[in-house]
Design goal:
By secondary structure, the chain is of the alpha+beta class. 59% of the residues lie in helices and 16% in strands. The chain has a five-stranded antiparallel sheet, sandwiched between helices. 32% of the residues are buried.
Length: 225
């Protein structure tokens, strides 16, 4: 890809990959892949959880749920490899790819002729890969700098979305615990410091996370009222 086209693509990506919450961000990434990257007809994201589970996020077509699930079950295919092992995997001609014989039969039957997987992120609790699907054999022979550019910009907006999600989670946790402390203060005529200390002691004695204990207390209070 020449330098001018790369610059133009970078501009289009920056407009397409708008920041937001995590679900919005993943959806924008797959939509942008179809819009911006050459020969991409469909896209999805595979997320590998800390326990090894593989899940599909933000597919641009429901057909991809079946194709991704087949790769997880067979433990082969570009999106499986990119999410679990390799950083970048491409198969320009699935029908003739000896690496993915079992999965290729499923993909070709669905009309998919070429496929690529690009690792997007490696987080402490998860890994993610972008899955690109094409109806035309010969696609993705050389994503090169364009693939790297897309992965880099996508990773940046994912990092932002995760920061937002962590912040929102922290606010929710603080609100939940604050409500529980308020219930204890009212019910047992405690100061806020003593109510919080009491809640903390219950958490430690019962080996229950503070937020979970607070949620249970709030739920019990709602039922009583």
């Amino acid at each position: 890809m020449d330098e001018q086209r790369l610059i133009e693509t970078a501009c289009r990506l920056s407009k397409s990959l708008t920041p937001g919450d995590l679900d919005h961000t993943l959806g924008r990434i797959t939509a942008a892949a179809v819009e911006v990257l050459p020969d991409v007809d469909y896209a999805s994201i595979t997320v590998k959880r800390a326990d090894g589970r593989l899940e599909t996020a933000a597919p641009t077509d429901d057909m991809l749920l079946r194709l991704d699930a087949a790769q997880y079950e067979l433990q082969e295919g570009p999106c499986y490899d990119a999410a679990t092992d390799a950083v970048h995997v491409s198969s320009p001609n699935l029908a003739a790819d000896s690496r993915f014989l079992r999965y290729a039969a499923v993909a070709v039957e669905a009309g998919i002729r070429a496929q690529a997987g690009i690792r997007l992120f490696d987080a402490p609790k998860s890994q993610g890969a972008l899955n690109l699907y094409s109806l035309h054999a010969g696609s993705f022979e050389d994503l090169g700098a364009l693939g790297q550019l897309f992965a880099h910009q996508s990773a940046a907006v994912i990092d932002y979305a995760q920061e937002i999600q962590n912040l929102q989670e922290a606010v929710r946790t603080r609100t939940t615990i604050g409500q529980a402390v308020g219930i204890l203060m009212e019910r047992y005529k405690l100061t806020d410091q003593r109510a919080f200390a009491f809640l903390t002691r219950l958490s430690q004695d019962g080996n229950v996370k503070l937020r979970k204990l607070a949620e249970d207390l709030n739920a019990t209070f709602d039922k009583d009222n």
